[in-house]
Amino acid sequence: MKFDIFAEMEYTAGSPGTIILNIHALRTPHQAVISETFATDPYIKVEELVAIQGENRLMRFEIADAGSLKITYNAKIDNFCQIKDFSGIEEMPVAQMDPAVLPYLYPSRYCQSDKLYRLASNLFGHIVNPFEKVAALTNWIHQNVQYLSGSTNSQTSAFDTVTEQSGVCRDFAHLGIALCRALTIPARYFTGYAYQLKPADFHACFEAYIGTEWVLFDATKLVPLNGLVKIASGRDAADTAIANIFGDVQFTSMMVSCELAEQPFIPFHYHDGARMGLSYP
């Protein structure tokens, strides 16, 4: 499925500084960047940094003088997702897991799975099928945590979200990841552009490692799962921040969009009792 994505961000610098931006669509074997443009106004020389594991594309640039800066990114993306039946899948022992996924089993800054082990075990430990287990905890988050814009901040963790029972997409994703890890299921943060998200913004959800592949889940249920364009993945939001700013530089405004570039589009969502999962292989 092809999508046209767009992002425009504006900053004001009080003095020289550096920005590391993370808004480019990820290139993977199943997500092709057909075309893209990236521009700064005024012009600044930009350096592209690719993570060692290839999980994000970072743009680093220095702001030499005080003033305003506008950044514009446009791209046409062709991505491919698979819908598979996970009804016969069995839980994989840690001893048999690919070593590359083991870091996604550990507690991290925003996903304190060690603090949520008892909750996860009591609520979902009885479910044998790992896909059904993750689907159940995703539904539980959706039903028990209120989506409330502005209710949290950059310090809010999964443990806080359980206590406050409110949050935004980032918090829903962190809680899903933490509960998965508490159940010995590797999970990672997914950030991207989202088709049909209102109001338009960058979106966060999570992937759980089931069988031998990453399967996508979104506890907010705000967008179709097959309407996402991946920007980055990581242990939590600390690994996938849209922007890291160094110096006296202030964010002032942002516009984001993700639109279909071809028809038809059949939205895919999980429903109660679902065993068909979606992955971006």
Describe the structure in your own words.
The protein has 281 residues and is α+β, with helices and mostly antiparallel strands. The chain folds into two domains: 2-80 and 241-260, Sandwich (Immunoglobulin-like); 82-240 and 266-279, Roll (C8orf32 fold), CATH 3.10.620. The protein has four helices and 14 strands. The chain has helices at residues 117-124, 130-144, 158-164, 169-182; strands at 2-21, 31-41, 47-50, 57-63, 67-79, 82-85, 146-147, 166-167, 187-194, 202-210, 213-217, 228-234, 243-260, 276-279. Strands 1, 2, 3, 4, 5 and 13 form a six-stranded antiparallel beta sheet that branches. It has a four-stranded antiparallel beta sheet with strand order 11-10-9-12, with helices on one face. A hairpin with a 6-residue loop joins strand 3 (47-50) and strand 4. It is globular. The two termini are 14 Å apart. The mean pLDDT is 94.
Keywords:
single chain, 281 residues, alpha+beta, Immunoglobulin-like, C8orf32 fold, 2 domains, 6-stranded antiparallel β-sheet, 14 strands
Task: Give the gist of this structure.
The protein is an alpha+beta fold. It is built from four helices and 14 strands.
